[in-house]
Specification:
heterodimer; A: alpha+beta; Alpha-Beta Plaits; 2 domains; 4-stranded antiparallel beta sheet; 5 helices; elongated; B: alpha/beta; Rossmann fold; Dihydrodipicolinate Reductase, domain 2; 6-stranded mixed beta sheet; 12 helices
């Protein structure tokens, strides 16, 4: 990473969670993280997987509930449901993106049951980080190990820093960075920002967040 | 019938009030007494406003050095005490004592003084109620913006669920200049000083304390929740970098010092926030704005001049005229 005057570096969007090298030695007080570790242990035992699906259905009362019914029927766990207006391209249809956890062995059952409900599955993928938020941090970012700061969020499993723009005016001056954070759900975003606030407090960084309840 | 008013404090706000009362006889206000820090003048028929303003302009005491502000409060003939002395945020004194003494005499009080209002609002209101008089303080928050009138009259019956405000014009000016011209914080502050927008000691403004005091006044007015300055989570703008503003700009955003109150979340905060440039609270220069969310009226945002002699006098005169004598 360049540390020269006026240096600016853009780290591209990261490809996704690798699930490698979990820093179990960093005991976060955050309950979500503990939950994640439990889930991950179960995953390693070969049981549930997390997937995202883009669904298209008729925009009429009861359709969404009906489309989601098979998920609980096969013992799946809904993590997030997001209405996607850009998906709603055709007249009278409703586009939603869902993230769910399901036993791998039940996955094919789920797909056929959803289709039986007359719901169109547009896409199945691993793109599970659907919520995006941007924050700016100011301080001695390099001296306080920015990669550790980023890692504190990335290692949660439910949120990651997907873009980092860094501006370093001079070696001993405070630098500024814009972080794009993506998460599985709104609550996860709040948890990720909570972690960032804790890190900022210990590293004496200033965080500039959006207004309460706003996304930028 | 003329409204008899005694004015304490002849700084920028006090002089603005006198000037407007002189220029607008149709208001029906007569100034029966004034006092500055060194002297006072009392005349039940109305003081010579022009003479007082002339003496202040020449740097002299406004009147008789044997008459103190306390004498005016306790002895002059007036309906409404206008308390516009400089704010002491730590104790609220001597303004608080003056107000109490006036209420005790059964006089109404109108003030621009943030110190006593942010610290003792509930007490002042209770005392005033006991004496059947009013305490009005429109000018303490947002300069000319009639937020208190809007809350107390036009939005009666609404529940206010959230409040967001740009309550310090100095900070808004500095952030505007940092974003628009790429100035450093220090350069923008120096410019604000040169233009008279910032005090010699800008601590109260740039550290977010002034905005937090106003937030306390608004919160106590709306929710009567008796919060104090210590309850506000305060971060100033003095550590912001030009790079941070540029990074925001690249996302069609900017940074503004925003006061936020969301009682449901127990949130009371003044801090620089990342905010979209098309948001109603983003505007240039020294203006102030207050945006509230209500259950019936939805969202309402008022934007206006947050400081200035005549602008603040507008708020004080609005308060004077809204009191039924």
């Amino acid at each position: 990473m360049p540390t020269g005057n006026g240096g600016k570096e853009t780290i591209p969007e990261s490809p996704g969670i690798t699930n490698e090298h979990l820093p179990v030695s960093r005991p976060y007080r955050d309950q979500r993280y503990k939950t994640y570790l439990t889930c991950r242990a179960t995953y390693q035992a070969g049981v549930p997987v997390q997937v995202s699906m883009k669904l298209e259905m008729k925009d009429s009362p009861g359709q969404l509930v009906s489309a989601l019914q098979p998920i609980s029927d096969v013992g799946g766990n809904i993590i997030a449901v997001i209405h996607q207006h850009e998906l709603t391209s055709r007249e009278g249809t409703l586009g939603v993106q869902i993230v769910l956890e399901i036993a791998e062995s039940r996955f094919n059952d789920l797909v056929s049951q959803i289709k039986e409900k007359g719901v169109n599955i547009l896409r199945i993928g691993k793109e599970r980080l659907l919520y995006k938020q941007t924050v700016i941090i100011i301080g001695h970012l390099m001296h306080t190990d920015i990669s550790d700061t980023v890692d504190k969020i990335d290692c949660t499993g439910f949120a990651e820093v997907t873009a980092l723009d860094l501006a370093m005016p001079a070696i001993h001056e405070r630098s500024s960075a814009r972080l794009t954070i993506k998460s599985v759900s709104i609550n996860d975003m709040e948890a990720a920002l909570g972690i960032l606030r804790d890190v900022a407090r210990t590293k004496n960084l200033l965080i500039i967040e959006p207004l309460e309840g706003e996304v930028v | 019938m003329k409204i008899k008013v005694a004015v304490l404090g002849l700084g920028s706000v006090g002089r603005g009030i006198l000037e407007m009362v002189r220029r607008k006889p149709g208001l029906g206000i007569v100034i029966t007494a004034v006092a500055d820090s060194k002297s006072g003048i009392v005349n039940n028929e109305g003081i010579d406003i022009e003479g007082v303003l002339e003496r202040k302009k020449n740097g002299c005491a406004c009147g008789d050095q044997g008459i103190t502000a306390r004498d005016v409060v306790l002895q002059a003939d007036y309906d409404i005490l206008v308390e516009v002395t400089p704010t002491n945020a730590d104790t609220g004194e001597p303004a608080f004592s003056h107000m109490k003494a006036a209420i005790e005499r059964g006089k109404h009080v109108v003030t621009s003084n943030k110190g006593p209002v942010s610290r003792h609002l509930a007490g002042l209101k209770k005392m005033a109620q006991g004496k059947g008089v009013r305490v009005r303080y429109e000018a303490t928050v947002g300069g000319a913006i009639p937020i208190m009138h809007m809350l107390g009259e036009g939005l009666r019956g609404n529940n206010v669920t959230a409040l967001y405000g740009v309550l310090n014009g100095t900070c808004n000016f500095i952030l505007t200049r940092m974003a628009a011209e790429g100035l450093t914080y220090e350069q923008a502050l120096a410019e604000a000083r040169e233009l008279g927008y910032a005090e010699a000691d800008p601590t109260y403004d740039v550290k977010g304390i002034d905005a937090a005091i106003k937030l306390v006044i608004l919160a106590n007015t709306i929710w009567n929740n008796q919060v104090t300055l210590g309850d506000v989570d305060i971060t100033g703008i003095d550590l912001l970098t030009t790079d941070a503003l540029r990074l925001a700009e690249e996302q069609d955003c900017t940074i503004r010092l925003i006061a936020e109150a969301l009682p449901e979340k127990g949130l009371l905060r003044v801090s620089p926030r990342l905010i979209r440039k098309d948001h109603p609270l983003v505007f240039e220069g020294t203006l102030n704005a207050i945006s509230i969310q209500t259950d019936m009226a939805g969202e309402i945002t008022l934007i206006g001049k947050g400081a200035g002699s005549i602008e603040t006098a507008s708020a004080v005169i609005g308060d004077i005229l809204s009191i039924d004598l």
